[in-house]
Amino acid sequence: xxxxxxxxxxxxxxxxxxxxxxxxxxxxxxxxxxxxxxxxxxxxxxxxxxxxxxxxxxxxxxxxxxxxxxxxxxxxxxxxxxxxxxxxxxxxxxxxxxxxxxxxxxxxxxxxxxxxxxxxxxxxxxxxxxxxxxxxxxxxxxxxxxxxxxxxxxxxxxxxxxxxxxxxxxxxxxxxxxxxxxxxxxxxxxxxxxxxxxxxxxxxxxxxxxxxxxxxxxx
Length: 219
Description:
Blueprint: H1 2-36, H2 39-70, H3 74-107, H4 118-141, H5 144-169, H6 177-209
């Protein structure tokens, strides 16, 4: 019976990794669509978000069945509860990538991001992709140093978020109101993407150490 339960937990972990890889792909392609005004790419991100939703549903169903059938305690229960929280965060990260792609699709054939903010959003693209890749590695390896790095690296996304807002509020900004709105929305989506990554990292720290606050990340 224990062997079967262990196999189920392993499949649960594999599902989370699969979700994370989908998020990696989505945020990378959404950023490219935003920066290049590629409507086909934007549409593909939006259309494929359903795959992530389906995987989240699979994870949730598996967790509920495991709790009902196995009545886990201790580390096993922490693992299942953590999986539920992580799958929800990954699904939300996928939604944020979809929202970014949606901005690109809505303004096509124009570019949503004015030239004054291009470098900032190139930074968003790089940092969000790095965060997504780190989350996949964290879920695969449960390395607490990776968890600590995700928390630390979130500062880069926060700083870019501040730069983007400062830029549209500056007297020198010559973009339209719609461009200002698109910049503000997209910057917020990237900033929230990073926040969910931090939430996942803290959840893994809790899973490994039992630390609710996620303060024991670095080893």
